[in-house]
């Protein structure tokens, strides 16, 4: 039995968390591959260093302090001395990347290299923490493990076939040797050998890619809440844990804003039918959530509600646009050329509306402009909207459910800007003004799940 266990930022974010994480890894049978995120806050700091350019020595001292202050409490002095040397060697690499970045100016690939450093430091630190507990922890970067990535910086995806080949070659001997590999999450190795990150929160996706690559029996995501819940517990304190979900439900919710899983986490495990568990590092005996290929009908209409913020609606007006399929495909093509996700599309006789992330609006408008004469009469952009995603087995096939959802929206006086029902078998999605979005989520949750 091979298990991939991914620990997020809070699960490696303090002495207590590292101790808990090590205890979870040490418990139970089977061979384990550990995947770690940066300590909480570290990736944000690295990204702000790129912007603010503080002196490199200050950056390195800050990170050395953050990691080694926890390590020092956990490790014996002799192990800590060995760890300290390895930490310094790793930080020297970051120092070189920062100096290069200051020299060359803008370089998105170097930015990915720098923002991957928190995971490198976590992998090293947790491997030594495991050693201090008597396990043979072996730190492996994504480069050393052979996680192959493609795509653009900040938005990479894994080459599953190449990664499968490399991981079997690089990890199986370690497992046979009873070692516990501790891999970096968040990034893979691009075609030029340089790091390519999978986007924010990407360590969940890394763990699923690794589970696929090593043909794991199970992929466990250890985080700071009791599994996948009926809503984000930060927004809805009465949210409840969900015992089981199927891949489709979890994938839809993750794509539409449930931060507990990176949007692309489900696909690699789904392809091999590997069950995925979401568990709480701070409550390891709690049940957590099992996500797998089996359809569950627990009888509830709404299983969970998510919200995707920071979106805009681009609306293109042209007479009888629906009778100009060439125009629609060119407009949609312009968005995909800009490598932008479209979260919803809707047409009427003379309008095409598309929901895209607000930071991508300028680029999309430039692409549309570059298409030349399109007979477009008007183009409008409405910012500050959010997409609400309601998922459940009976969401779409039970009469009156949509009416009940929309009445919960009306109760808090929010205007529905766009609806996309039926595109997925399990989800009802619609767009509301961002300032009302969290109230809408709470109202829907109260209506279907209760307080
Ligand atoms: P990690 O650092 O472990 O990857 P994240 O902060 O990325 O943790 O994800 C966990 C957080 O996701 C939770 O603390 C919670 O606030 C948020 N979240 C959003 N939607 C949900 C949901 N449906 N169920 C559980 N947590 C959710
Ligand atoms: N450390 C990365 C981030 O903060 C990746 C992750 O935590 O999954 O986005
Ligand atoms: Mg996360």
Describe this structure in words.
The protein is of the alpha/beta class and 451 residues long. It has 2 domains: 2-292, Acetylglutamate kinase-like (Carbamate kinase, 3-Layer(aba) Sandwich), CATH 3.40.1160.10; 304-448, VC0802-like. The chain contains 15 helices and 18 strands. The chain has helices spanning 15-26, 42-52, 56-74, 77-104, 108-115, 117-132, 142-145, 160-176, 203-214, 247-255, 266-272, 325-337, 361-369, 401-411, 434-448; strands at residues 2-7, 31-36, 137-140, 149-152, 155-158, 180-184, 187-189, 195-197, 218-223, 244-246, 276-280, 289-292, 304-317, 344-347, 351-357, 378-391, 418-421, 427-433. The strands form 4 sheets. An 8-stranded mixed β-sheet has the order 3-6-2-1-9-11-12-10, sandwiched between helices. Strand 4 (149-152) and strand 5 form a beta hairpin. Helix 4 (77-104) packs antiparallel against helix 6 (117-132). The protein is globular. The mean pLDDT is 94. Bound molecules: adenosine-5'-diphosphate (ADP), aspartic acid and magnesium ion. Aspartic acid binds at residues 8-9, 37-38, 43, 118, 185-186, 200-203.
């Amino acid at each position: 039995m091979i298990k991939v266990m991914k620990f997020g930022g809070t699960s490696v974010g303090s002495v207590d968390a590292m101790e808990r994480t090590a205890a979870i890894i040490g418990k139970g049978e089977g061979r384990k591959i550990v995947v770690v995120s940066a300590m909480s806050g570290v990736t944000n700091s690295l990204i702000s260093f790129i912007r603010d350019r503080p002196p490199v020595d200050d950056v390195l001292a800050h990170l050395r302090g953050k990691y080694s202050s926890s390590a020092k409490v956990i490790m014996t002095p002799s192990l800590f001395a060995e760890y300290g040397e390895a930490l310094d060697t790793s930080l020297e690499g970051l120092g070189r990347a920062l100096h290069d970045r200051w020299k060359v100016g803008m370089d998105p690939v170097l930015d990915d290299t720098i923002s991957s450093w928190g995971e490198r430091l976590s992998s090293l630190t947790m491997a030594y923490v495991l050693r201090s507990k008597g396990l043979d922890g072996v730190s492996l970067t994504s480069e050393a493990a052979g996680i192959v990535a493609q795509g653009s910086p900040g938005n990479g995806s894994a080459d599953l076939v190449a990664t499968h080949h490399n991981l079997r070659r690089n990890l199986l001997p370690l497992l046979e040797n009873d070692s516990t590999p501790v891999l970096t999450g968040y990034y893979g190795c691009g075609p030029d050998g340089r790091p390519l990150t999978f986007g924010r929160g990407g360590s969940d996706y890394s763990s699923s890619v690794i589970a696929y690559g090593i043909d794991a029996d199970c992929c466990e995501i250890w985080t700071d809440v009791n599994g996948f819940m009926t809503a984000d517990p930060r927004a809805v304190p009465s949210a409840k844990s969900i015992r089981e979900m199927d891949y489709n439900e979890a994938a839809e919710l993750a794509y539409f804003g449930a931060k507990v899983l990176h949007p692309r986490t489900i696909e690699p495990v789904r392809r091999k039918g590997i069950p995925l568990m979401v568990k709480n590092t701070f409550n390891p005996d709690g049940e957590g959530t099992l996500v797998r290929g089996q359809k569950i009908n627990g009888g509830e209409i709404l299983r969970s509600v998510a919200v995707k913020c920071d979106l805009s609606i681009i609306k293109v007006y042209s007479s009888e646009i629906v009778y100009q399929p060439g125009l629609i495909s060119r407009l949609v093509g312009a968005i995909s050329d800009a490598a932008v996700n479209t979260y919803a599309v809707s047409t009427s006789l003379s309008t095409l509306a598309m929901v895209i992330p607000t930071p991508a609006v300028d680029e999309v408008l430039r692409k549309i402009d570059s298409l030349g004469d399109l007979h477009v009469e008007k183009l409008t952009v409405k910012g500050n909207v959010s997409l609400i995603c309601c998922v459940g087995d009976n969401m779409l096939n039970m009469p009156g459910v949509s009416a009940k959802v929309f009445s919960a929206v009306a109760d808090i006086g929010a205007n529905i800007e766009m609806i996309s029902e039926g595109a997925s078998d399990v989800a009802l999605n619609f767009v509301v003004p961002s300032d009302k979005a969290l109230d809408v989520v709470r109202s829907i949750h109260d209506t279907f799940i209760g307080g």
